[in-house]
Design brief:
This protein has a two-stranded antiparallel ribbon with strand order 1-2. It contains 12 helices and 2 strands. Helix 1 runs antiparallel to helix 12, helix 5 packs antiparallel against helix 6 and helix 6 packs antiparallel against helix 7. It folds into 2 domains: about 110 residues, 434 Repressor (Amino-terminal Domain) (Orthogonal Bundle); about 100 residues, Arc Repressor Mutant, subunit A, CATH 1.10.10. The radius of gyration is 22 Å and the shape is globular. By secondary structure, the chain is mainly alpha-helical.
C-alpha cells in the first residue's frame, strides 16, 4: 500500500508542479467524482497486484458481462443502486467507499428525480463529515496541540481495542502521564465521548480538518507543530515516508489558482488513502506553498 501511496504522491505532485494552468478544481467535491473512474481505478490497482487480470476477468469478478462493462465505462449505460452495491461488495470496498460509490451512481442514474436529488444530498452531507464544516463545529481547542488530533486518529486505528494511556504512550512516543492528560482533555472539550453500548471512548466526529480563510494564532501554531514533526520524520526509514520539495520561480498573480490546486491535491489524496476500515498507522500529510523572496518586483 505504501508503494501505491508514493506513486500517487509523485503523480499528483507532478500535476501540481507542471500543470498550474489546469481547469480549476477538478476534484473539489464528492458530487463531482465519476463512479466510472472509481471502477477503472480499482481495476488498475488489482491489475497491478495481479498483472494477468484482464478486463474480461474483471467483468466476471464484478458480475457483469464484458460487453456490459465496456458500455458502463464508456458512458453508454449506467447502473442501478442495487448493482452498484453488489459491485462494491465484490471489489471489497470499505463501508465508506461503498456508500460513496452507490450514491455517485444513484446521483446520475437514480430512477426518479427525487432519488437523484436524495443521493446528491447524501454526497454533500458525507463531504461535510469528511472535510469538516467550520461553521457547524468549532475544533479550535483541538488544534491547539497536534497530539490531540493524533490521538483521535489513533482511536480509529485501534478499532475495538480500548483507547488507553498506555497504548497512546507507546504508539505516539509520549510519557504515560501526558497521554492520560490528552485523553482527559479530549473528553473535556467534547472530541471524545463514552459509548454507552461498549463503554469505550470514541471520537465525536469521523474526521477533522483544520481549515480557515483567516490566519489565526491557533492555525499558525498547529502548522508550526506539524513542521517540527516533519523535521523529526526525516529520521524515519525512507521506505516509511515521502518528502518532496521544490523551490521555483512563480507568477504571483496566479496565487489563487495555485491555492486551489493544492486544495484539490489534498482532497484527492485523502479520498484515495483514508482507510477507516483497514488503517494500522497514523500519518501526516503536510502541504506548504510560501514565498521566499521579500521584495515585490523591485528589481524589474
Amino acid at each position: 500500500m505504501f508503494d501505491e501511496f508514493v506513486l500517487v504522491f509523485d503523480e499528483l505532485w507532478r500535476a501540481c508542479h507542471a500543470q498550474i494552468g489546469l481547469p480549476k478544481s477538478p476534484v473539489m467535491a464528492f458530487k463531482d467524482l465519476n463512479f466510472r473512474e472509481l471502477l477503472v481505478e480499482r481495476f488498475q490497482a488489482k491489475q497491478k497486484a495481479a498483472p494477468e487480470l484482464s478486463m474480461r476477468k474483471f467483468a466476471a469478478l464484478i458480475g457483469v458481462s464484458p460487453a456490459n462493462l465496456s458500455d458502463i465505462l464508456n458512458g453508454r449505460c449506467g447502473l442501478s443502486g442495487a448493482v452498484a452495491a453488489r459491485i462494491a461488495q465484490a471489489l471489497e470496498f470499505s463501508d465508506f467507499d461503498m456508500h460513496l460509490f452507490v450514491d455517485l451512481v444513484e446521483s446520475k442514474h437514480g430512477r426518479s428525480k427525487n432519488d437523484r436529488e436524495a443521493a446528491l444530498e447524501r454526497l454533500e452531507a458525507r463531504e461535510q463529515d469528511v472535510f469538516g464544516d467550520a461553521e457547524s463545529y468549532d475544533h479550535s481547542e483541538l488544534f491547539k496541540d497536534w497530539k490531540q488530533v493524533a490521538v483521535l486518529e489513533l482511536a480509529g486505528v485501534l478499532k475495538e481495542m480500548p483507547l488507553e494511556a498506555s497504548i497512546i504512550s507507546r504508539r505516539l512516543g509520549l510519557q504515560k502521564i501526558e497521554a492520560q492528560l490528552l485523553l482527559e482533555r479530549l473528553v473535556q472539550i467534547g472530541e471524545l465521548q463514552l459509548d454507552p453500548m461498549t463503554n469505550r471512548l470514541v471520537r465525536r466526529t469521523e474526521h477533522t480538518s483544520i481549515q480557515s480563510p483567516i490566519p489565526s494564532e491557533v492555525v499558525r501554531g498547529f502548522h508550526k507543530q506539524i513542521l517540527t514533526q516533519a523535521q523529526l520524520g526525516l529520521e524515519q526509514p525512507i521506505e516509511e515516508r515521502k518528502y518532496r520539495s521544490t523551490v521555483m520561480s512563480f507568477d504571483s498573480s496566479r496565487i489563487e489558482e495555485a491555492r486551489e490546486m493544492i486544495e484539490t491535491f489534498h482532497r484527492e489524496f485523502f479520498r484515495r488513502f483514508e482507510a477507516p476500515d483497514t488503517a494500522d498507522s497514523v500519518y501526516t500529510l503536510g502541504l506548504q506553498f510560501f514565498r521566499n523572496d521579500i521584495g515585490r518586483n523591485e528589481d524589474s
